[in-house]
Design a protein that fits this description.
- One of its GO terms (biological process) is glycerol-3-phosphate catabolic process.
- Its EC number is 1.1.1.8.
- This is Glycerol-3-phosphate dehydrogenase [NAD(+)].
- This protein has 422 residues and is α/β, with parallel strands linked by helices.
- The chain folds into two domains: 212 residues, NAD(P)-binding Rossmann-like Domain (Rossmann fold), CATH 3.40.50.720; 161 residues, Orthogonal Bundle (N-(1-d-carboxylethyl)-l-norvaline Dehydrogenase, domain 2).
- Helices cover 43% and strands 12% of the residues.
- The strands form two sheets. It has an eight-stranded mixed sheet with strand order 3-2-1-4-5-8-9-10, with helices on both faces. Strands 6-7 form a two-stranded antiparallel ribbon.
- Helix 6 links the parallel strand 4 and strand 5.
- Helix 10 runs parallel beside helix 12, helix 10 packs parallel to helix 13 and helix 10 packs across helix 15.
- The longest helix is centred in the middle third of the chain and has 23 residues.
- The chain is globular and about 60 Å long.
- 46% of the residues are buried.
- Bound molecules: nicotinamide-adenine-dinucleotide.
């Protein structure tokens, strides 16, 4: 396959390296992005001195061991990506352990047994081999006990319970990353999933978000992702290295909250895009909804965390994820069906019928965002977010998605600092 000019341009801009010559094959282009040829962009982790979590008390360097907590559609694809890299990179154990929420399949077999025998998650990622070094484990405690790199990737509503079970069960010097899109709303305010993990387990937690519809990455189609980190660039680079492949390009930005809120809030906008599709309102309307949604995503994020950077919204986790989710994600798909049915069939019913066990995140996130907006007196500032929730719970018809402007947004008010409102 010969890469098209826009793709070549995108890759060139992404890597800030000169592309050799025209008429490269995609595979040779991919090789041109390999670690050996990208000294200034690729993480230096392999070459640099090992960090504290690479050593035991005897001072001997140890390989990092990776466990994936979660085994749904994205969880399985993440395990596949990681497993291809742990085999290739000398500083990691080959095995990637994957905690599976055990299920009995219609055949009567246990999902874990099937994954371990045919190397495929037949329920959540059928038809894709995960790599022989992926080991499915139904025992959460056992799955994490030897790991020092934990990848969390479950639907967000299960994370609080999972963290509770893991307290005191993980090793010291563990690093975590969350691929989970969503937040928990507590009495004291919203809590991002990476903070929940950090607070409950006492470990540092980065995030990875991006324009990443799992099934496309499973097919090894080119895409990008963003790692958000708090302070430790070396750890961020290690995650970048662990996830990057020639078809999955990962960059790191120092903005955990910005990256995570982008990934979380775009699911609410995707519901709005789905309503527009269900009502056959056309592309102009959908583009308008995406633009208004992006503006609310940015304003909401910056009101919650004044540290959130404008530039984050131009990374893969921002505008790119918003576009792909509004064009092809499951939230859009189910919202389209909801609107086509005039809001008469509930999201729960449609989710069960259309997603075969996969979970919608947008509806619960819309409710959580609405709780924050009501609690802080911000409802009027975020008409799109507020309208999406009110449609989801049946207080407004799907057609209200283009009437929300009548609430007269005062987003110009949001140009000030977060402290004005918090
Ligand atoms: N699928 C994607 O394309 C995609 C892409 C990027 C990010 N994400 C995010 O990744 C996260 C995980 O999504 P996914 O697509 O891997 O999952 P999924 O929706 O495909 O599957 C649901 C998972 O939840 C598990 N589960 C069901 N009940 C449970 C319980 N009580 N406790 C714990 N687990 C339970 C199921 O076994 C299954 O593994 C979500 O936050 C999602 O937003 C998904």
């Amino acid at each position: 396959m010969t890469p098209s000019s826009p793709l070549r341009l995108a890759l060139r801009l992404h890597h800030s390296i000169p592309l050799p010559r025209l008429h490269l094959s995609f595979s040779s282009l991919s090789r041109s992005m390999s670690p050996a040829m990208e000294p200034q962009e690729r993480p230096q982790v392999e070459a640099s001195a090992p960090r504290s979590n690479d050593f035991s008390s005897d001072g001997v360097a140890h390989k990092s061991k990776v466990t994936v907590v979660g085994s749904g559609n994205w969880g399985s694809v993440a395990a596949k990506l990681l497993a291809s890299n742990t085999l290739r990179l000398g500083s990691f154990h080959d095995e990637v352990r994957m905690w599976v929420y055990e299920e009995t399949l219609t055949t009567g077999a246990k999902l874990t047994d099937v994954i371990n025998s045919i190397n495929e998650n037949v329920k959540y990622l059928p038809g894709v081999k995960l790599g022989k070094n992926v080991v499915a484990d139904p025992d959460l405690e056992n799955a994490v006990k030897d790991a020092n790199m934990l990848v969390f990737v479950t639907p967000h509503q299960f994370m609080e319970g999972i963290c509770r079970k893991l307290v005191g069960k993980i090793k010291g010097n563990v690093e975590a990353i969350s691929l989970i899109k969503g937040m928990e709303v507590k009495m004291e305010g919203p809590c991002m999933i990476s903070s929940l993990i950090s607070q409950q387990l006492g470990i540092n937690c980065c995030v990875l978000m991006g324009a990443n519809i799992a099934n496309e990455i499973a097919m090894e189609k080119f895409s990008e992702a963003t790692v958000g980190y708090r302070e430790n660039r070396q750890i961020a680079d290690k995650w970048v290295q662990l996830f990057s492949t020639p078809y999955f390009l990962v960059t790191a930005v120092q903005d955990v909250e910005g990256v995570e809120l982008c990934g979380t809030l775009k699911n609410v906008v995707a519901l709005a895009a789905g309503f527009v599709d269900g009502l056959e309102m056309g592309n102009n309307t959908k583009a308008a909804i995406m633009r208004i949604g992006l503006r609310e995503m940015k304003a909401f994020s910056k009101l919650l965390f004044s540290s959130v950077k404008d530039t984050t919204f131009f990374e893969s986790c921002g505008v790119a994820d918003l576009i792909t989710t509004c064009l092809g994600g499951r939230n859009r798909k189910v919202a389209e069906a909801f609107a086509k049915n005039g809001g008469k069939r509930s999201f729960d019913e449609l989710e069960a019928e259309m997603l075969q066990g996969q979970k919608l995140q947008g509806v619960s996130t819309a409710r959580e965002v609405y709780e924050v907006l009501s609690h802080r007196g911000w409802l009027e500032l975020f008409p799109l977010f507020a309208t999406v929730h009110e449609i989801c719970i049946g207080h407004l018809p799907p057609s209200a998605i283009v009437e929300h402007r009548e609430r007269r947004p005062r987003l110009s008010l949001l140009d000030g600092s977060a402290t004005q409102y918090c």
